[in-house]
Design goal:
By secondary structure, the protein is of the alpha/beta class. It is built from ten helices and ten strands. Its EC number is 2.1.1.107.
Length: about 280
Amino acid sequence: MDDIFSDLPDLEPGTVWLTGAGPGDPGLLTLLALKGLRQADVIVYDALVDETCLKRARPGVVLEYAGKRGGKPSSRQRDISLRLVELARAGKRVLRLKGGDPLVFGRGGEEALTLVDHDIPFRIVPGITAGIGGLAYAGIPVTHREINHTVTFLTGHDSSGLIPDRIDWQAVSRGSPVIVMYMAMKHMGEITRQLIDAGRAPAEPVAFVCNAATASQAVVVTTLQHAERDVAQAGLEPPAIVVVGEVVRLREGLDWLGALSGKVLVADPIGSRSLKDPA
């Protein structure tokens, strides 16, 4: 098994790897991420890293939690960045492990620039972002040729915890058939009002995927007009990915996890010839 790592770079002492762990399932770790787990002296991990991924680390590694969760006590970003500098200067092999991809709403860029400022060598190891991989585990593709040729990824809150005021909801509504939202549950009522006011149909399908690609994954399918009510009634809590658009209907045909538990899938959930014609 170790032969698969032989031609991959090593995590060297005094170096930091900013690494994506993917959305949850340890099977979605990249080979480089897994090699980093096996070589690191210290793993600084965030709140969205599933514990099953950490179990792949080498015995004796030091695990340091540096999670940031809205509404809960969290490490300050500057403190996390400077901790990476401190560990690297001490000659440690440092794995900074983040859920999803470190550069997709993950502040990996901020941490990397701090390392640059302190002359710390680093490598960026991309991971599967939850907005793609997490939705795939719910049977929802972000693109489908009969539905959309564009998709927009956005965050539901900024560093202050508020909805980012630089999002042009009119433009997003008009220009993107499919919208994938990170960290949006807290402001779901306001976001759905913004989208409906911008012209999206109240009956447009919406899906919430909580704890995506983990053993506790939960999915709620609803509509824009009922999204806030239905997610509250379901008792779902973050972390969650929210997707708006007709691709949500494909879950009836692509819920492969449900099929493993006996769910009967619909062969043509949107009446599309593309689902029958491989050409």
